[in-house]
Amino acid sequence: QVQLVESGGGLVQAGGSLRLSCAASGRTFGWYNMGWFRQAPGKEREFVAAISRSGGTYYADSVKGRFTISRDNAKNTVSLQMNSLKPEDTAVYYCAADDGIVPPTTTSAYDYWGQGTQVTVSS
């Protein structure tokens, strides 16, 4: 079991930046691939970014070049640096953990989820 708690969400103007963090507790954090997903009102939850145990990163095309995922295994945290934010980035952002071989990009593949943190980007 692993417990995940997101923080860092808020209200920001278009073009601004936010940094989300996810703190993990429970089993060894380093065993897990970690992912960030988001869900806008009326839409399905979608993949944003993922990072493997070894630090390999994966991004959705919509955030590539603007968002950066990173992890600190010593502190049991994964972060999402979001730059050049757009109104369409508005959503609840979720952190997730997976113990598979390669970080998945589908919601159903992840075993553990945080409660989410709201990000609102105003135009």
What is the number of strand segments? 11
Specify Rg, calculated over alpha carbons: 13 Å
Quaternary state of the chains: single chain
What is the approximate shape?
Answer: globular
**Average pLDDT for all residues:** 95
Portion in strands:
over 45%
Low confidence ranges: none
Query: N- to C-terminal separation?
Result: 40 Å
- Discrete helix count: 0
Which range best describes the helical content: under 10%, 10-25%, 25-40%, 40-55%, 55-70% or over 70%? Answer: under 10%
Order of helices and strands: EEEEEEEEEEE
Quickly give the structural class: mainly beta
3D structure, described in words:
The chain has 123 residues and is an all-beta fold. Helix content is 0%, strand content 51%. The protein has no helices and eleven strands. It has strands at residues 2-7, 10-13, 18-26, 33-39, 46-51, 57-59, 67-72, 77-82, 91-98, 112-113, 117-122. The strands form two sheets. Strands 2, 4, 5, 6, 9, 10 and 11 form a seven-stranded mixed sheet that branches. The protein has a four-stranded antiparallel sheet with strand order 1-3-8-7, with no helix packed on it.
